[in-house]
Request: fold
Amino acid sequence: MTTMKKPDIGTKMYFVCEHLYCIPNHAGPVKEYCVCEAEVVGFFTDGYTEVQLVGDDPNGHRTPYYFKLSEIGERVFYAPEEAAGYAQTLTVRYERIWGWLGVPDIPMRRPWENLLKSRKEGTT
Reply:
């Protein structure tokens, strides 16, 4: 088993959040995936190490988040573009499974799309 280096306190990290929002005259909430930014504020160690992050949720509320150290690079990232790639994967999977719902649930909103475009422009 490889040990992963802990990020420094104060490091900005990015991850994907499910966000539910309402559309007027629609029966229920609609889901989208958003890339969120948070700062490393500490660690919990009890059998495995968790990274404690604090940042704003998609609604703008200050929220604590916890990820296993082993999830860095899988569910929590150092770059927003990497998190946007993960959000794209989750969006495609959700649309494939729930595609029969139709508009407005499918296609999902893609607030992370501009991050992928900036990554492509930066590599060309």
Summary: Residues 12-123 form one domain.
